[in-house]
Amino acid sequence: MQAIDKKLLKDFQRLWMQAIAIALVLACGVAILLTSVGMYKAMSETRTAYYERNRFADVFAEAKRAPDSLMAEIALIDGVISAEAQISGYATLDLPGLTRTAVGRILSLPETMPPALNVPLLVSGRFPDPVHTDEVVVNAPFAESNGFKQGDRFSANLRGQRRELIIVGTVLSPEFVYTIGPGALLPDNEAFGIIWMSERAAAAAFDMTGAFNYVSMALASGVQSQPVIDEVDRLLEPYGGLGAYDRSDHISNAFLDSELTELRGMAMILPPIFFGIAGFLVSMVMGRIITLERSQIGLLKAIGYSDIEICIHYLMLAGLIAVFGVLLGWTAGTILARAMAGLYAQFFNFPYVIFRVSYWVYAATGLVGIATTSIGAMQAALKAARLAPAVAMQPPAPPRFKHSRVDKAIMHLRLSQSTVMILRSLLRWPVRSFLTSLGLALAVASVCAATFINDALDEIIDHAFHQTNRQDAMLLFADEVPEAALEDARNLPGVLLAESQQYQPAVLRRGHLTKRVAVEARRPGSDLSRVLDKDGEVLDFSPGGIVLSLRLADHLEVGLGDTIEVEFLTGRRETVEVVVSQVVELYFGLGAYMDFEYLNALFRQAPRVSTVNITLDETQLDALHRAVKDTPEISGIIEMNVNRRAFQETIERNMLVMNAIYIGIAILITIGVTYNAARIQLSERAREMASLRILGFGRGEVSYILIGEMMLIAVIAQPFGWLIGAGIARLMTNAFTSDLFAIPLVLKPSTFSTASLVVLGAALASVLIVRRRLDRLDLVAVMKTRE
Amino acid sequence: MAEIIFRTQGVTKVYDTGQVKVHALAGVDLKLFEAELTVLLGPSGSGKSTLLNILGGLDHVTDGRVWFKDTELTNMSDRGLTRYRRDHVGFVFQFYNLVPSLTARENVQLVTDVAPDPMPAEEALELVGLGSRMNHFPSEMSGGEQQRVAIARAIAKRPQILLCDEPTGALDSTTGVQVLEVLNDINERIGTTTVVITHNAEIQRMAHRVIFFQDGKISEVRVNEHRIAPSEIVW
Ligand SMILES: Nc1ncnc2c1ncn2[C@@H]1O[C@H](COP(=O)(O)OP(=O)(O)OP(=O)(O)O)[C@@H](O)[C@H]1O
Ligand SMILES: [Mg+2]
């Protein structure tokens, strides 16, 4: 080993604490980049492969009842390369050992297997024999959650007929990567299953012989979906078509999409912050080393080392830090990716997930890490290379302090000398002070962003579950029923209160802008399911108009008093012109509301209901479930309590993880920044501090200068951190706002105080570690060496 | 007879550097008297600075005992030594060790703010002839001026002892003489007991007493019958 390499290792040894602090920050960036890019690639590649192999369709449409003969026409639509008709429906299930009412989505399998599109992948067993109409396959997660084995039986309420079904196999389908039941907020594989049966069996059960009510189409590559959708809508119109849609509106695929977007966002927002801070820390530390080693550099040059060798020597030092950080980041990233994969496995049902981070992602993240530190070290290394040997051998001139106007003000304040030293030092190195402060501000912002989401979700949960949907359960009907059903519902065991609600699928149209929604109606004064605006005001709707949520109004570019077309997709399928009577700001959904009587008048029918909201005597829950399973009209029951609890638990668990991660991130940044800044302070001012000790200043008094300056910077960082945090929170509310819901911008004082406490605490701890070094300062030794 | 300010008894100092033990001081018995200006002379490495640091409460002895007046410094705690330095000792080093972010006046105020009976910072700076440079930062002053600020800082608390380790080491002859004049002046006017370490044999001629060091021991003590004024010293 060459002497200069030995020096490199010695330098690194001396710097190891600082190196670790920087490496940790760098590692964070590498780990997050690795995880998010890796997961993104893995997820999207898996999805593409799965969709391709199992022929996931491009356009989907539902109808009431269309004759099989129509399929010939659908297949002839321009751009459609294959189309498949299916029978689809819902059924309540009576599962052995489950008191709750489970809901099943029934899908038919074609006579000639395998299906042309959305091909289910057999996980175990076999497909049903077309002759045995009681044989079914179910989605594997459903079977797993309920402990079903091949040959197990359960009963289903198919249009009023109780049927015993036999499970002959389990499958996974590209249509159900993300499986969520009607009205549910989260997947519940125990109480919601997908059930495939032979076409014969499904046709018999749903009275669909020679007909279909669900069609999937694959398009030739490069074909736009909109013209096809329009054509399908036109063909299905006479048969109760409910509006065709493409993959982007397919619920399972849409959830995957939003997850992928989130991963991409994560890759783009967080890692650059870490790399930026790591680069800054490296440049700060390297700059100091070069100052300290001035005379050594001069000596090395005097004895014949070239500029390039010296430049490389210092870059290598930064390189060692980078290698350390990258290795750490790879390790952490691999573990994190594995943990994320586990989390995804819970939510997304892929048959063969390629949750493997490919080598190039490791290589790329490593390169980014090394590039960052090199850029950070470059300035210092170049300075070293440029230093003329003769100049380098002279001691550097003492730092120049000037009499600025601020300085006059400082003098007038009659502060103690130590305080003056702190203030002047901040002013003397404004860029460094600013960047240090910025680093800490980012740490504060990171905690703000995490805790803000907590409060926002709390508010949403409160709004959704305690203000808007206050019913204990919802009874769903297979078809609309006359409002008299409300009376029947009241007579079910355990039901205390029952209120009616109606949903009518419709297409809202204004010029060329359209949106498919469900128009909601309930009787005025309903107490269980209410509509509240963002300010918590309960809204009632007067007859003679439609009330739109702001998001929907924006989408259609309409305002109060404008007229829109409402094309109802059910009943007589009439199109009516309606005035927008109110625009309201809501957290959830693309709400469109009408007065109950008014809506039914538009349908020219006696009032009907789609769902009944009820409150329950919990002690009679079992009896209720038994009754529901025996009531053919009721296609399902949604227990809001279960929903609420599951949602809250999931959210809380995720929040806990997320908070821990963000607070961990903030602490790492704080330590990285503060520890290094304090070490550099100490190194630059060791002499000064030793002089003070010799003059008779106590340890506390001297460390006040060090701690005071660092903590002052940290305190100055707070308001900036709050501002940045509030900005990030605003960005997040915008980014997360989708058709499904809006995140409110809830900024509580506690959000800011928590962030400040965490960061100031971590900063103080870091400075105190450095203070221990200050206490051990060898006065005599420091004074003997000349800077 | 003048009061004894410092008394040492068999002081040794051993630096254990791992392989070898360096005997920096090998048994020093010494008395320093009130208002006396003493010069310490001796070859490099003979232990002068080590002794000065021990007298000033910056370092501990390995063996032997040290008294300041009636107070024994030998086993004093760190806190006690800090207090001792603050109340009684003024230091001047070869490198001036001013705080670069503070002006001349503020550097002196560092001391006057905490000492029990200080003179005003302005007066101390007048004493060293820098009354007109009070608001200058160290970077705006010459080496000699900086050293005089350091002396002003050392004497502003009216210390009983002034310990100077090669105070002229980094200065040229003219500036050095100016610094020595200040030291002499203060010794005469305030009666501060002053110890000056130097490599410059000429400087011994201004001292009351000269102590010669050799291999960690005092080899000779000489009392000057005829002191000369610093201005007569040339090198
Ligand atoms: N921290 C230390 N560790 C080891 N040895 C030391 C240490 N400090 C001083 N020494 C040794 O103690 C001896 C006396 O040192 P000291 O600094 O007192 O000498 P000095 O007389 O002041 O020399 P100079 O005139 O060169 O300043 C020297 O041999 C020196 O090498
Ligand atoms: Mg010495």
Question: What are the salient characteristics of this protein?
Answer:
heterodimer; A: 6-stranded mixed β-barrel; 22 helices; 22 strands; B: 235 residues; alpha/beta; Rossmann fold; 4-stranded antiparallel sheet; 10 strands; binds adenosine-5'-triphosphate; binds magnesium ion
Average pLDDT metric of chain B: 88
Mean pLDDT of chain A: 84
Strand content of chain A: 15-25%
Ligand types: adenosine-5'-triphosphate, magnesium ion
CATH architecture group name of chain B:
3-Layer(aba) Sandwich
Query: What's the number of domains of chain B?
Result: 1
CATH superfamily of chain B: P-loop containing nucleotide triphosphate hydrolases
Kindly describe this structure.
The complex is a heterodimer of chains A (787) and B (235). With 787 residues, chain A is an alpha+beta fold. Chain A has four domains: 1-53 and 248-396, no CATH class; 54-247, no CATH class; 429-471 and 642-787, no CATH class; 495-616, Barwin-like endoglucanases. In chain A, strands 3-4-9-6-8-7 form a six-stranded mixed barrel. Chain A has a six-stranded mixed barrel with strand order 13-14-20-17-19-18. In chain A, strand 18 (563-568) and strand 19 form a beta hairpin. The longest helix of chain A has 56 residues, at 640-695. Chain B is α/β, with parallel strands linked by helices and 235 residues long. Chain B has one domain (4-232): P-loop containing nucleotide triphosphate hydrolases (Rossmann fold, 3-Layer(aba) Sandwich), CATH 3.40.50. Helices cover 28% and strands 28% of the residues of chain B. Chain B contains six helices and ten strands; from the N terminus they run βββαββαβαααβαβββ. Chain B has helices spanning 48-55, 78-88, 104-112, 121-127, 143-155, 173-190; strands at 4-16, 21-33, 37-41, 63-68, 71-72, 89-92, 161-165, 193-197, 209-214, 217-223. In chain B, the strands form two sheets. Chain B has a six-stranded mixed beta sheet, sandwiched between helices. In chain B, helix 6 (173-190) links the parallel strand 7 (161-165) and strand 8. The longest helix of chain B is centred in the C-terminal third of the chain and has 18 residues, at 173-190. Chain B is globular. The interface between A and B is medium-sized, with 32 and 34 residues. Residues 48-49, 165 of chain B line the site of magnesium ion.
